[in-house]
Write a structure and sequence with these properties.
2 domains; alpha+beta; globular; single chain; about 260 residues; two-stranded antiparallel ribbon; 11 helices; Four Helix Bundle (Hemerythrin (Met), subunit A)
Length: about 260
């Protein structure tokens, strides 16, 4: 699956970004819930491990995720992830995380994209699973780029996240127990390469246009739509962008205006 290669490339990009950091640097907090860079990597590492086990060893997968419901309810998921890796931190954590990402990509590259895999909640296809890993790596990577004051140079592999954002249009509303207004607003997005990506039915009154990476930032909730240059026209389009959520779990509000941005010295 191309998504497996894209996931690995995104992991490699994040790895290159943090390669110069000292062990102490990994302890600095980010704008996402105060998570440190260590916490970001442990979170990605844990769920990459879960994805790999969902393909290779279902019993081990079930054992890994047992108790997560309590951890999520009690708000101690990061403590659970820290305990699993026995406090692995800094450069050693980076090496371990990257090795697991590489193994996960290799396994998914040879997996039937339509194979159903267990997960926390409903099962999903292998293609959806590795796309979710790409999305999480990209989204949680953003707080690291922001904290280090680096503007990320995206590639067209973010199209996977655009598609995920489009496919979860209905989910955004259903997750909030609201009917999804139809049809979905028309999207006209400019890819990092300059190509134009369009989705939905052409409409003049319900339309979202702009840079694809900013659409990805909104649906992954790493930016408030007001902090982007997206052109959002129409009541439905505005409602979607105000609460878009392409990831699973209970409804989450987007970050407050001005709170998520590239850090400056």
């Amino acid at each position: 699956m191309q998504q497996a290669a894209d996931f690995l490339d995104e992991s490699l990009a994040l790895s290159e970004l943090i390669a110069p950091l000292s062990d102490t640097d990994y302890l600095q907090g980010t704008a996402f819930k105060g998570w440190t860079i260590d916490m970001v990597l442990r979170h990605l590492h844990f769920w990459n491990t879960a994805a790999l086990l969902s393909v290779k060893d279902e019993a081990a997968f079930r054992a890994l995720v047992s108790g997560l419901t309590d951890a999520l309810r009690e708000g101690v998921l990061t403590d659970h992830e820290d305990a699993y890796f026995e406090g692995l931190s800094g450069r050693a954590l980076r090496e371990d995380w990257l090795a697991m990402a590489d193994r996960t990509a290799d396994v998914f590259a040879l997996t039937d994209p339509s194979q159903r895999l267990q997960w926390v909640g409903p099962s999903m296809s292998a293609r959806s699973s590795i796309t979710a890993r790409l999305m999480e790596t990209w989204a949680h990577g953003q707080e690291v780029y922001d904290q280090l004051g680096v503007v990320r140079e995206n590639s067209d592999r973010i199209r996977n996240i655009v598609v995920l954002g489009v496919n979860t249009y209905g989910w955004t509303f259903a997750n909030r127990k609201l009917p999804a207004p139809g049809p979905m607003p028309f999207l006209s997005l400019t890819a990092p390469s300059g190509e134009i990506w369009t989705y939905g039915e052409e409409q003049d009154d319900e339309r979202i246009a702009g840079r694809a990476e900013e659409f990805c930032q909104v649906v992954t909730q790493v930016r408030n739509v007001a902090d982007t240059s997206l052109s959002v026209s129409g009541k439905t389009a505005q409602s979607w962008m105000a609460q878009a959520q392409c990831f699973a779990g209970p409804p989450q509000p987007p970050p407050a205006v001005g709170t998520r941005k590239t850090r400056t010295a």
